[in-house]
Write a structure and sequence with these properties.
homodimer; alpha+beta; Jelly Rolls; 2 domains; 9 helices; about 55% helix
Chain lengths: ~200, ~200
């Protein structure tokens, strides 16, 4: 049986929705289990989907011209992962979605998501709130890429989103703050040394 | 008398709105003339406003820790300029708005913008579309900062938004693609030389 508890809570935290509308919304979501490292490739426009993470972790990433892998977004439990630019522009996705940990997911096609906005008016509010959060997230990342150096970006990530640093492999962390794995290792070593010194001082 | 023609056209291009609702929306906008180089500083939360450019040009910018000036967004005629993160989070603005050319503007306070979403339901659709465009714009900039080098960023800007390169001073262009003015001068010289060679070849 599909587990809608987390998604229900997530929706209710964001909008006021009555039971009937909620039932309609949930009926468009399907559950799926995905394995670590799987790439959830968009196959043509209509198969593009948004995922909601019940358990596990997904990342959205793209490749630059030299094939360098850049992670744009990481979704843990109770978060959506969507290729929003493709959703908005109705163009093929530029980003791929990869499973980082074995995951239990719900998904909805972009087509159904848009259909829901027509038949359940309050779903438009959900979309607006979703867009707002995505905008703020991207704006903050844009600021960090233009104002902070590699080491500062790592420290900021550790402060704001420690789960990314603690739970995910170095490869993903490095590609999230757009540095090489070697640079990340150096920064982490310095960072740990500093923290150890601070702890020794305080004892 | 306030000139609402451009804003009316802009709104009608984005949403279906009846005359009465349009009248209500326009009644919350006021006109103002601003001089080149003026900083339109937000004075406290309630005085934060969105601008619509009838004539002229505005930029949104922020400063990094060393005081380096970074331009996040440039609005020419028929575009809005809003500190969206502040609008969304209701926190003090992180970005300032500066007048780049003598400008004829309309403005609305964030408070009134939100109030309009309550009394004119279709204004919510306008906001969603506005958010979508802002998201796509920021996402593309995020990709360009993480995948392109200085010279590639300049070429991309020249291709996608030539007005910024042609109409604005080097200082603003450099701060928009996050490079120094010296680097911009070098890139421009190379770029012009290449184009001249191409033209000579074609004659």
């Amino acid at each position: 049986m599909t587990n809608y508890t987390e998604l229900t809570n997530f929706i209710r935290r964001n909008i006021d929705i009555n039971d009937e509308d909620l039932k309609t919304v949930l009926s468009y979501f399907q559950s799926v289990q995905k394995h670590k490292n799987e790439i959830l490739l968009p196959k043509g426009k209509n198969s593009q989907v948004s995922y909601f993470v019940i358990k596990g972790c997904l990342r959205l990433f793209y490749l630059d011209e030299e094939g360098k892998d850049i992670t744009r977004y990481i979704a843990f439990e109770n978060q959506f992962a969507t290729e929003l630019v493709s959703f908005i522009t109705n163009q093929p996705a530029q980003e791929a979605i990869q499973v980082i940990e074995n995951s239990e997911l719900l998904y909805i096609t972009h087509e159904d998501f848009r259909h829901l906005m027509k038949i359940v008016p309050v779903w438009k509010d959900f979309y607006s709130i979703y867009l707002e959060k995505a905008y703020v997230n991207n704006a903050k990342r844009l600021i960090s890429f233009t104002t902070l150096n590699a080491s500062e970006r790592y420290k900021q990530l550790f402060k704001i989103n420690p789960d990314i640093v603690k739970r995910l492999p170095n490869k993903v962390v490095a590609s999230y703050i757009n540095i090489s794995q070697e640079t990340l290792s150096r920064i982490k070593a310095k960072f740990l040394l500093k923290n150890e010194k601070r702890e020794t001082k305080n004892t």
